Fold:
Amino acid sequence: MIRGVIFDLDGVITDTAVYHYQSWRRIATEVNFDLTEEHNEQLKGVSRAESLDRILGWANALRTEEEKAKLLVQKNEHYLTLIESLNDKDILPGIVAFLENIRSAGIKTAVGSSSKNAHFILNKLRLIDSFDAVVDGNMVKQTKPDPEVFILAAQLLGLQQQECIVVEDAEAGVLAAKAAGMKVLGITAHGQLHQADLCTHNLLEKDAQFIQQFFS
Ligand code: BG6
Ligand code: MG
Structure:
């Protein structure tokens, strides 16, 4: 019996994934690396610090801890300028109605995000009150694909892990949810989330099928 839905934030609730990519691309040029969209797929859902380590690894670039800390600040400052004007018009299609539908059916809702900016973004989107719990990158030690973020979200909802499903756009997030024993609805334009139980372009398109498969 499904009693909770845990949403990833970036790329699921709002399209901030593109701004993360733009700001990582800029950091990558500082180490003479051309960050392609294929590389970027491997950064989705992954924490800021782990993302930088992956980029430095691909670029074969060594940096001291102090230099890395500066790059992380630079990345976040650029990212924050890109999302400065983010507002409720930037909520992805279907999200608001979907949240209303499941909440009125008694389903609990949470956000499970690797982002340390998650609360800030949810406030900008005026969505913070639509969730019973919000777990962000400041509240966990391990990054996705580790299940910690989703396990904590289920705990805060007061639910068993298997009573929750996860909505995710990233391979790392899908693996994290599966490791927590949760079913996954993958949001993807390209159909590349192989381990998800069901994939859709957005929550509008397959709403009926989704409810049938996950809530019955
Ligand atoms: C995830 C994004 O939600 O959060 C990643 O998919 C991002 O791309 C990560 O790197 C950390 O975000 P932030 O806002 O803490 O830099
Ligand atoms: Mg995401």
Notes: The mean pLDDT is 93. Residues 8, 10-12, 17, 44-45, 169-170, 173 surround magnesium ion (ligand 2) (CB under 6 Å). The chain has two domains: 4-15+87-215, 17-83. The two ends are 8 Å apart (CA to CA).
